[in-house]
Amino acid sequence: MTIFLAVALGVFLIVLLRSSVLGGADRWIEKHFVASSYGLPPREALDNRRPGPPPAAHRAQERQDVADAAWQGDWKTAERYVRAAGDDWDARWDRLELLQHVARKDSAWLDAWRTAEPGNCDAATLHASLMVHRAWEIRGSAFAHAVPDSDMKRFRAMLPAAIEEARRAALLDPANPGPWVVMVTAARGAQYGHEQFEPLWKGLVARAPHHYEGHWQALQYWCAKWFGSNRRMMRFARQTVRKAPAGSPLAGIYLHALSELADRSSAASLPVSPTTRSLLKRTAASFGQVAPDDERLPVLRHLLAHYMLQSMMYGPALEQFRQIGPWCGAEPWRKAGNPVMAFEAARGRAVKLSRARPTPTAQGYGMAR
Known about the structure:
It is a single chain. The chain has 17 helices and no strands. By secondary structure, the protein is mainly alpha-helical. It is globular.
């Protein structure tokens, strides 16, 4: 038997075993599963409106105040809001993204800011980022062959201009990675080859080695539908897990890579491998060090639980479901059409296949507030 046939047979047997095991678990879930007996919120408490709890009231109010001030022509509040993030580059980028949404509705305040402070890197970066997003709005999300030629021409003309705008912004503050995130984001749409992309990536990581959005955008560049391949994308994702610092959700980039791989595969589930399990375990450990109120964490925990189940890591998946709590408005479950039913089935499988015992006392429920 050749190595290829042996591997193929092994994968087939794993899939067959998994299908048989899941079938038995699903029958048990339907008849016997009571979530609250295992430290999980009861089914009637599940909420499919969000992947996790809403942001703290003071944080939501601050964002609304910044948006309202901008729409009233007050750009100084926006400037202070961004500047207050200091050199926490992830937080600074999150604030710029909020302002970008504000400017998409009305950008007069941004024009006033740029006029008043032409040397402000944040204002220039925000303008360049807005150019990128306006270009993508013209192109839309359809495959290239379905986009009208006139729209594609406008799209491809706007992105190089946005990159040049970001290059000028980078000169205003050489330490700020924001302009480099814009350039990395625009590179795939501008059809940059590897030789053109690499200097942009190096420029970003030289300033912010663990920038979350920058890594997510680079992952998109390296995926097979753009300028990479499954192999290059997964190599990039594995390297990202290994370099993720304590307190950062950066390891979650690996989960996005698994989702991209699943979207491109006709198989019902990803192959189980020791490498995948090891990286999922490492990702879970990394998430344990992230601040509980990090708003990126809930979405990532849903993905982690989903891929742990697919990798037959039933006990660790159950622990993630306990951390998630009652929130089930996330992509792994929405794809099934009924997120509550899909989430409930996934939790039940984690309980049944991990052979968890009922908990003697009631427990708090994860990220619920």
